[in-house]
């Protein structure tokens, strides 16, 4: 009887996860229930919880790290979740934090202020504050604060992209950013023709100034842009437009399109039970290692160089 229960438990969990998928595929969700049920990577652990990077109740973060000792400082990933800039909580993304930590990365997952409490650029400002916190405190968790990769999904990919390409937000901290990973991100969505974008950006005096494609230029960090071919929430043309602008500036860009993956499906592919759907975690991990390795060997100075970045004016017209 005990053995039957042991066999049935994983099946029940998988059935529960399958039932949840139907409610997650239409749009972004905090994923709290999914996160609670899904099996997680044992090689990654939560090492710090509810740390403040600012004064507000939404300006808190969690830190995940590889299990085991600290033989040398590890690359740092700052992951921003999605939710149309109006929903989400880091409590729903332990499966992402532990997956990345199990790959050998110290992973920071911050919350940020949301609409309607705030509008653009407040959530980007919070993202910048979280990244500055990560660079300053990475060493406390065996992380290398000078080897940081920004990563996000959906609205979180927008935040990560703006921090990677728009020099107004991070100032000198931008020299520590070695790569950007965007999962199904909106990077070129003017005019604001859906409720979420109107609520978050509708008050902007210059809509073009809010767009990552406006700022993408020479000197930006290498990018990995991922999307699913069945994404009807954020169209793949967003990744294509940003990739074109980055390549025009000589920035290395990798693009991957995963067949039959939806907007949320690309995120769920990071979870253990769904990795067979697409090699998202493998592709992300390989890109992070390559970006960091290039930096450590000095090649990165030529690829997305500190000299170009330093000369990229923060007050140039969008």
Provide a descriptive summary of the structure in words.
With 318 residues, the protein is α/β, with parallel strands linked by helices. It has one domain (30-311): Rossmann fold, CATH 3.40.50.1820. It has twelve helices and eight strands. It has helices at residues 2-24, 32-37, 94-102, 122-137, 155-165, 195-201, 212-215, 237-248, 265-268, 280-296, 299-303, 306-311, and strands at residues 44-52, 60-66, 74-80, 106-110, 143-153, 177-183, 223-228, 253-258. The chain has an eight-stranded mixed beta sheet, with helices on both faces.
Task: Quickly describe the structure.
It contains 12 helices and 8 strands. The protein is an alpha/beta fold and 318 residues long.
**CATH C-level label:** Alpha Beta
Q: Could you name the CATH topology?
A: Rossmann fold
**Order of strands in the sheet with most strands:** 1-2-4-3-5-6-7-8
Instruction: Please provide the count of β strands.
Output: 8
Into how many domains do the coordinates divide? 1
Strand content: 15-25%
H/E topology pattern: HHEEEHEHEHEHHEHEHHHH
Major β-sheet annotation:
8 strands, mixed
Output the CATH homologous superfamily: Alpha/Beta hydrolase fold, catalytic domain
* CATH architectural arrangement: 3-Layer(aba) Sandwich
Low-confidence stretches at least 5 residues in length (pLDDT < 50)? 1-16, 297-318
Our count of helices gives 12
What's the helical proportion of residues?
25-40%
């Amino acid at each position: 009887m005990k053995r039957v229960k042991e066999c049935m438990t994983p099946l029940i969990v998988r059935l529960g996860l399958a039932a949840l998928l139907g409610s997650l595929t239409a749009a972004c969700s905090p994923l709290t229930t999914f996160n609670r049920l899904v099996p997680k990577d044992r090689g990654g652990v939560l090492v710090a919880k509810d740390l403040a990077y600012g004064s507000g109740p939404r300006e808190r973060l969690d830190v995940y790290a590889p299990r085991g000792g600290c033989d040398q400082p590890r690359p740092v990933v700052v992951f921003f979740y999605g939710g149309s800039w109006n929903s989400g909580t880091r409590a729903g993304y332990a499966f992402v934090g532990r997956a990345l930590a199990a790959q050998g990365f110290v992973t920071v997952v911050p919350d940020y202020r949301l609409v309607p409490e705030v509008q653009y650029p407040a959530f980007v400002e919070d993202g910048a504050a979280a990244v500055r916190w990560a660079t300053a405190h990475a060493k406390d968790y065996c992380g290398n604060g000078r080897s940081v990769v920004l990563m996000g999904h959906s609205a979180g990919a927008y935040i990560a992209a703006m921090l990677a390409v728009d020099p107004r937000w991070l100032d000198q901290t931008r020299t520590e950013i070695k790569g950007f990973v965007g999962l199904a991100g909106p990077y070129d969505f003017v005019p604001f023709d859906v409720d979420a974008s109107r609520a978050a950006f509708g008050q902007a005096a210059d809509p073009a100034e809010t767009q990552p494609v406006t700022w993408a230029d020479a000197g930006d960090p290498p990018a990995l842009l991922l999307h699913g071919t069945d994404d009807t929430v954020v169209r793949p043309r967003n990744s294509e437009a940003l990739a074109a602008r980055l390549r025009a500036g000589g920035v290395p860009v990798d693009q991957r399109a995963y067949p039959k993956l939806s907007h949320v499906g690309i995120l769920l592919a990071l979870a253990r039970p769904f990795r067979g759907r697409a090699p998202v975690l493998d592709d992300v991990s390989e890109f992070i290692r390559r970006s960091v390795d290039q930096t450590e060997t000095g090649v990165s100075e030529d690829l997305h160089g500190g000299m170009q970045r330093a000369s990229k004016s923060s007050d140039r017209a969008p």
